[in-house]
Design goal:
By secondary structure, the protein is α/β, with parallel strands linked by helices. It contains twelve helices and eleven strands. A six-stranded parallel sheet has the order 2-1-3-4-5-10, sandwiched between helices. A five-stranded mixed sheet has the order 6-7-8-9-11, sandwiched between helices. Strand 1, helix 5 and strand 2 form a beta-alpha-beta unit. Helix 1 packs across helix 3, helix 5 packs across helix 12 and helix 8 packs parallel to helix 9. The longest helix is centred in the middle third of the chain and has 17 residues.
């Protein structure tokens, strides 16, 4: 810092103020200091800064090994938001969504002196593991069951998304809507079933039986083969876009046209969903917004201020994206 100060013709206290983005520094002085830092290839000593401030300016992220679009996109959204806010990111990945592995991930991140932890939490075991974090280490879960969780959460309103999908299909004139569910032990899948079922009840429509399995296109294909054999099926709401892709193929192989014979709605709005044949009507989750909201919530809980208490749970509204896979039912 003294070398930078000498080259810029300022005091080392001024260099410190520039580094910490203090407002009482003239823009001309700030520019001169930044140019001197670049010229000398100056890098802040983060270890020394951590010792002085007792903050590492590093956040821990807990994810799990998956190729699923939703959880992976949540992880990227959180990481982007953290980096934009000037935080380094340390990622701990668990193989299975079990409490023991989550506890081990929390312990690993604690050893790296992270300031807080954000975890992708599609199952209760993750939030249960976060409850065992060391005192003073704030944690936020993304996903989960929301108000029933004991740690602060940020999640998409899955039930509202299911209502949007079901209301759209009923509004087109379909007498009822079938549902292909995801894994039974995922709260997101359960909430989507609740929203779908409640909408049918309120509309006075028949509620068909729902089947659960996985988030895969292979599951959607198997279930789609069964639905294709029933001529009364004219509308299907799928728990995610991958399942919808499998259903689309099964219906095509059975000679049932989409959307002429059967309308299909998915959930997630994967980047490829607009290029399905036909382009898929789906419920969009804003994963970038989830990342921003989770970071904001964590920083609010970490901050030692006199501001009003940070909310315990934040809910992000989904959006229906209408494309070519839905239409009025056949006469």
């Amino acid at each position: 810092m003294r070398d930078v100060a000498k080259l810029a013709g300022v005091s080392h206290q001024t260099v410190s103020r520039v580094l910490n983005e203090h407002p009482n520094v003239k823009q001309e002085t700030r520019t001169r200091v930044l140019e001197a830092m670049q010229s000398l290839n100056y890098r802040r000593n983060l270890a020394a800064r951590t010792l002085v401030t007792r903050q590492s300016h590093t956040l821990g992220l807990i994810g799990f090994e998956t190729t699923l679009f939703g959880p992976a996109s949540m992880l990227y959204g959180i990481e982007d938001a953290a980096r934009a806010a000037g935080y380094l990111v340390s990622i701990a990945t668990v193989r299975n969504l079990e409490r023991r592995e989550v506890l081990e991930a929390v312990d690993r991140l604690s050893q790296h002196a992270v300031d807080g932890i954000i975890a992708i939490a599609p199952k209760p075991a993750v939030t249960n593991g976060l409850l065992q974090a060391p005192g003073g280490l704030y944690c936020v879960a993304v996903g989960g069951a929301g108000e029933t969780d004991a740690v602060p959460t940020v999640r998409v309103d899955n039930a509202a998304g299911a209502r949007l999908a079901t209301q759209h299909l009923l509004g087109l004139g379909h007498r009822t809507v079938h549902h292909v569910g995801g894994p039974h032990d995922w709260p997101e899948a359960q909430e989507r079933v609740m929203g779908w079922r409640d909408t049918l009840y309120k509309a006075g429509a028949v509620v068909p039986p729902v089947a659960f399995d996985s988030w895969t296109a292979e599951w959607g294909y198997r279930r789609g083969q069964e639905l294709a054999r029933d001529p009364e099926v004219t509308a299907v709401f799928c728990a995610n876009d991958r399942i919808a892709l499998g259903v689309l193929r099964a219906l095509h192989e059975a000679g049932r046209s989409v959307p002429r014979d059967v309308s299909i709605v998915g959930f997630d709005d994967m980047p490829d969903s607009g290029y399905f044949l036909p382009p898929l009507t789906t419920v969009r989750q804003d994963f970038a917004e989830l990342g921003r909201r989770s970071l904001t919530l964590l920083l609010q809980h970490m901050a030692d201020t006199d501001e009003p208490e940070a909310p315990a749970h934040v809910v992000v509204s989904p959006e229906l994206v209408v494309r070519g896979s839905t239409a009025a039912p056949p006469r």
